[in-house]
Amino acid sequence: MVNEESIEIDQSEEEQPSHGKRVYVYGTLLMAFLLSIFVVKANWQHHVPVKQVTVEGISVISKDEIVRLMNLPPNVPMYEVDLTAAQKNILSNSFVKNVVIQRDAPSALRVLVEERKPAAILNANELYYLTSDGTVLPYIASAEAYDIPVISGMDSLTGITAGQRLLNADIREALEIITASKYTSEHLFHAISEIRLRKGRDLVLYSFESGIPIIFGKGDAVRKLVKLEAFWQQFLQNNATSDIQYIDIRFDDQVVVSRKNS
User: Fold this and answer.
1) Tens digits of per-residue pLDDT, 67-108?
2) Are 134 and 160 spatial neighbours (Cβ–Cβ below 8 Å)?
3) How far apart are CA 118 and CA 140, in angstroms?
4) CATH superfamily of 52-115
5) Is the dihedral of CA 195, 197, 198, 203 positive or negative?
């Protein structure tokens, strides 16, 4: 009996490796099958051409212009597109501040654009847009209307090109006034129609509402704008202004009003 039991145990032990081998073979075949599917899919995706380009974040530049700048070859496979080169091409447009291009499988490219926003219109023989840091943008028609002041008095400025950053001290001062007016009062920002530069002398502001010249001077923009806003709300908003010749806010503790025929 002892010998028979020993024989039965030995037979059961011999069956276990055979079962394990079958599981190993089936697992290997399954992994090979899945790997082949992955390789076929990857190979297929690699050769799928770009069929769609979506563009987000644009209001000035058109989608057609973005696609043109990307300079994609006809029927180019999506995974063969040089994204770095396409981004560099798009950034050649001075309205583009930043751009990111993403692949969106199986056959689309997604372009995320951050545009530069004009802060003022520069009148220097020709019209240009200016950003808040002084970057020149071409003055072009767009779907977005900009309620921004005109900076004038720079007729002698020549050789202006799109993408150039202007370092002129008077222009920098005017842009600081515009930026400060946004934080001081929404009403005041929209009320300023023009900032006239005077070749290094005191800057003069003009308002949409009355066209009254406001002698601004230079420096201390926030304090002067707060004072101007308070004066406007208290004395001018609901009163006739046709007899006012100019307003002078250069002084620390007062606003000087000059009236016609006074």
Assistant:
1) 999 999 998 998 889 999 999 999 999 999 999 999 988 889
2) no
3) 11
4) membrane protein fhac (3.10.20.310)
5) positive
